Amino acid sequence: MRVKVQMPSGEMITGFLLTIILLSPVVAQDLCKESKDGFKVRISLKTALGNDAYEWNESEKFLFRSTLAYAMRKKTGEDTYNIENILVCNDTKRVSFIFVVTLPADPTQLIPKEEVERAVRQSKHRINNAFLLSDMTLEFVGVPPTLAVPIQYNTPPWLIVFGVVIGIVAVGIVALLMSTVSKRRRAKAKDAGFDQDGDDEGIVKENGTALSGLNKKDGVYNQAFSNDERFTKL
Amino acid sequence: MSKDVRPSWDNPMQFVLACVSYAVGLGNVWRFPYLCQMHGGGGFLIPYLLMLLLEGIPLFCMELAIGQKMRLGSIGAWSSISPYLSGLGVASVITSLYLCLYYNVINAWSFWYLFHSFQSVLLWAECPVNSNRTGFVEECAVASPTQFFFYRETLNISSSMEETGGGLHMGQALCLVLAWVIVYLFIVRGVKSTGVVVYFTATFPYVVLIIYLIRGVTLHGAWNGVKYMFTPKLEQLANPQTWINAATQIFFSLGLGFGSLIAFSSYNHHHNDFEKQAIAVSLINSGTSIFASVVTFAIYGFKATFNYESCLERNRLLLLNTFDLSEETISVENVTAWISQLNSTHPDTFSTITDKIQDCSLEAELDTAVEGTGLAFIVYSEAIKNMPVPQLWSVLYFLMLLLLGMGSMLGNVTAIITPLADIKVLSRTLSNETINGLVCLLCLLLGLGFTSPSGNYWFTIFNEYAATLSLLFIVFIEVISVCYVYGLKRFEKDIEDMLGHRPHWYLKLMWALVSPLLLLCLFIFYIINYIQGGAPTYQAWDKHMGKSVVKEYPIYGQVFIALLLVSSLSCVPIAALYAFCRRKTRSAVREEHSNTNTAE
After folding, report:
1. Which residue of A has its CA nearest to B320?
2. CB-CB neighbors (< 8 A) of A147 in chain B
3. How far apart are CA A225 and CA B2, in angstroms?
4. Which of B114, B241, B250, B312 is the most exposed place for a label (fewest CB within 10 A)?
5. What is the per-residue pLDDT across B548-578, written as a single tens digit (0 to 9) for each?
6. Do B459 and B157 touch, CB atoms closer than 8 A?
7. Which domain holds residue A33?
8. pLDDT in the model for residue B392
9. Do B189 and A169 touch (CB under 8 A)?
10. Please, which residues 83-102 of chain A have a Cβ atom closer than 8 Å to chain B?
11. The model's pTM
12. Is the Cβ pair A161, B112 closer than 8 Å?
């Protein structure tokens, strides 16, 4: 017995497709809202940019979805991710929303949270820059920020400054000590010179001692003949 | 041969600048503003200036007179006054030695911070990132970046004094070496080199202070701090602690009792007018304290306002995030209004964040009074990192701290090397430069101990006990011996010989009566405080909690404190006893001689 199988008519097919198309955003919204694989995103435009803040509208949301698709592509290496795979819902005036990522092959299946997190962390810097924001102002709630690696120096700069300063000081000390030593040598040479000359040079002798005070420019301080002003001014 | 002639200052201005450089030190910047804040703001000036008149100027004048008359360092000067008093000079030298040991460590820290200011991002502005780059290093996140930089990167502090070992902090050790090398450079030729250096060390800090004053009062919120400081709370004058703190601050700020003033004035000409100079230096010192506290309070005000506004901002963000409101709805000004409004309209949602909402209060921020190294290296760094072009301000500030510290070090080291140079035996065998070098080397080697992880706790011991009680005792004995052992009349005649007129009756009254009484009261108060305070405690840094906790000193720490005090206090009676015994044996020998002579 032949079973009569009724082929779907063109009308039925169009109807069916229409339902799917109309239903899919609803389905998509359900996927987004009810899912535990979604991430909440918070954007603080005014805090980051002040007067230069742009308005958060559909175009910006479009950019967000495309950057996330880019992040997924970069992480997985598959070029199949598209903007339709990023679903956004729960928009608030704060400018915060929830997003989920669907599998490119099967739009009803979601990518698990951990994978999305890894993708976001890998490309966070690029995502931030696309929006002129930073880790503080573009928050993915639950994703720890990837902080920039601090600058590594070969020689810490403080050592360089230290080396310069201690070099200058060492030169100063050596110069001072050399000048003291040379002064003393000159003084000793003059002393020796006086002793060697003897009586012939007409050295004034006072009570039998050579006037060795001639080689000290300061002389001996004799308080009785002090020429200091009685009251030294301040 | 040239050692027979005592070197002298090139002109009296060098002497005045040396005294200013010595007296104006770190205490003017980090102790006086704290006292001002604790004891009623502008009202504190009343006991402060009163104590300046009662003890500051007279005692300063007296020390200068002694040095100028005796023309010897502290040991020689006091031995000349009375052979039983040589111990007083020795006590001064020992106290100066203790001070030199730990004071230069502060200069080493200033060098460390100064060198680290030459970076595009100041290291104490941000926390370092932890190993997997997910957040900040835990200790830094719990405390603040400035505290982390000071306690971990600069000091590498251990969590208690008992944890010895851990080697030396190489960076600190290098900076300490540099500090001592520079001190040696400044004093290598005695007053000849010191006299040139003080032109710079005495004047440049004022340049920086003026620049900071202008920068400070133009900062946002600075006026809050200055207003807070100068509103006098006159009820604090009834608190005896206020008067005691004023007296001790004047006393320690002028640097009396270390022997530095005696050493400096021993290089003066005989007829130098030290009276006017003493008044000038004391007034400059107090004026600088007041000036520095205006700057400090401007900075405080800026920092407090910054913290207060950050607190409000955090609350605002919390409200925005919890209630998903648009950013324009809540601004920093109406945060508090919104808090109460949201609490009434949405109490259940609000209850989730009640513990996270912080109480922001400008008063509370201004009330946090800090003194000492905490103020200089933590609070100021925090304020500086929030200024525009922080590197410039950081360099200026730490350069100023360095000059203040180095200027005081000049006086401290001169107090040690002058009596040493007076000892004939030493000065004949070694040249002056060698003696000075050996003193610096010894202090450097001993001071390296402060660069170990537990070193900062030993530093605190020295800071609190090495030069407090002993100085009060020394100066008390000084005044008593000048007035009653040497004789006030004799002292008057000496001054008349030097100055051409007798000292003012006011000075004589202070020397004979008021200052000794005041010093005795302070000394007794300190002793009572020590006894009543129980076991001495210190602040240890807990790296897990990110703040300081109070701990008791271990037994060997307390023994060391006692040793510090006893070693300087006991010099006076021991030397007096020694002189007494020598006199007895000498007179006994003389009697024997005369007996044998008469017998012949």
Report:
1. A94
2. 129, 133-136
3. 19
4. B241
5. 888 889 998 999 999 999 998 998 999 999 9
6. no
7. 27-141
8. 93
9. no
10. 92-96
11. 0.83
12. no
